[in-house]
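Please produce the structure of this protein holding zinc ion.
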Amino acid sequence: MNLLEDTAEYVLPKELPAEDHFATDDEIKIQLIQKHFANIMRILGLDLTDDSLKDTPNRVAKMYVKEAFAGINPANKPDITLFENKYQYNGMLVEKNITLYSYCEHHFVPIIGKAHVAYISSGSVIGLSKINRLVEYYSKRPQVQERLTIQIAEGLKEALSTEDVAVFIDAEHLCVASRGIKDTNSSTVTVHYSGKFQEESYRAQFLTLIK
Ligand SMILES: [Zn+2]
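Below is the modeled complex.
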């Protein structure tokens, strides 16, 4: 049997209209991904009648749609509530060591790290957990760390109506650690500074506070 010919039927069918992915119901996405992931497993030579494997396609499909890649869908963007900065705190607010889980878009394996963000209020204050939620929303996509850093910064600027935002991400890419070069010691740092954080004094204060 010619395997390549045999796999022709595994080519993505046209069930999903390309222009309207976000309108597609999550349950339909899960069913489609489940079907295709089962095919990937079969092509790899796995036995899907095995008790331990038989529900894996469904588990993976649910995980992709509801968790790992939930941030692709704009409907999952967190609602941000702002408070008035009544107490006139006009220093910088730093939230550090935000746990970050994302996926490398080149290999679909995890990126695991920490995000540290800061902003200076322009009159509004954000609920602190909303900063975590924004980081989470942009992380739950197939990503490259550079784009993730910018998206988090832009999301904060938009939410807080301020340009004075800093984002620092230090993350380990499992595609580097577990395969290819297999470097388990390296991590990747990306930074984004805008507004006042482009000034040396603010930047230095931020870097000192996250140490
Ligand atoms: Zn990668």
